[in-house]
């Protein structure tokens, strides 16, 4: 091997290491920038709540929620760093999956095998993706989205199942493809309070195509949620 070829090969190895380090740093910087912007907004919100609310219970509850979210974001950042460290230490290609979890529905995609550089490139383009390695050593790039999945938007219905539970169905309720069960309804209270056409619509299935409709239906029928405490058997004296 000539001296030129030796240095050329050495340069290629070092360039691969540098490129991986650049991808890692880019992802960390992007995530940090996102966290900083969210944190800045939260700090401003906290100041407004403290100044305008005079420590009302609602303001205190909101601030407590923001503190919980801060803690969750720090945990996500730590998990992301741990994932990148493991990925940097690994060799060869990794099988990669993408999983997007919606309020209603989950979508997964198999991307096949990619190098660490290819994975970093994907994460750089999608900074909200959270990476993890499963027990098989396969990579999962995941994200939670506060929206209905495209499938749910096309064919989701909210109705009542045979046991009186408010339920989300994939398609018309008669097909019995349950996606999610919310809570048990007080049917007697509904029958005495709600118009007959509303009850009929619920029985046939209420079509939900976006988050506004989804939240509206849940909010309407949550007033008739049966108290779970009623179903708890009291101990015999």
From TrEMBL:
UniProt keyword terms in alphabetical order: Membrane, Transmembrane, Transmembrane helix
TM stretches of this protein: 21-38
UniProt entry tagged with the keyword Cell cycle: no
Every Bypass of forespore C C-terminal domain range: 147-222
Signal peptide interval: none
Tree of life domain: Bacteria
Name recorded for this polypeptide: Bypass of forespore C C-terminal domain-containing protein
């Amino acid at each position: 091997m000539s001296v030129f070829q030796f240095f050329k090969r050495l340069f290629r190895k070092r360039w691969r290491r540098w490129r991986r380090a650049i991808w890692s740093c880019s992802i960390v910087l992007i995530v940090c920038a996102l966290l900083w912007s969210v944190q800045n907004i939260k700090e401003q919100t906290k100041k407004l709540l403290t100044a305008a609310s005079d420590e009302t219970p609602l303001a205190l509850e909101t601030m407590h929620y923001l503190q919980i979210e801060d803690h969750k974001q720090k945990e996500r950042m730590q998990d992301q760093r741990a994932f990148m460290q493991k990925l940097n230490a690994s060799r060869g290609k990794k099988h990669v999956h993408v999983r997007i979890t919606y309020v209603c529905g989950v979508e997964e995609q198999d991307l096949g095998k990619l190098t660490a550089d290819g994975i970093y490139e994907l994460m750089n383009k999608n900074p909200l993706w959270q990476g993890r390695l499963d027990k098989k050593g396969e990579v999962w790039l995941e994200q939670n989205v506060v929206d209905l999945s495209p499938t749910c938007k096309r064919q989701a219905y909210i109705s009542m199942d045979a046991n009186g539970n408010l339920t989300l169905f994939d398609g018309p309720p008669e097909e019995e493809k349950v996606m999610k069960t919310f809570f048990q309804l007080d049917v007697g209270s509904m029958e005495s309070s709600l118009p007959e056409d509303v009850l009929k619509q619920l029985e046939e299935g209420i079509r939900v195509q976006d988050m506004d409709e989804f939240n509206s239906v849940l909010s309407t029928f949550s007033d008739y949620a049966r108290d779970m405490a009623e179903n708890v058997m009291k101990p015999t004296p």
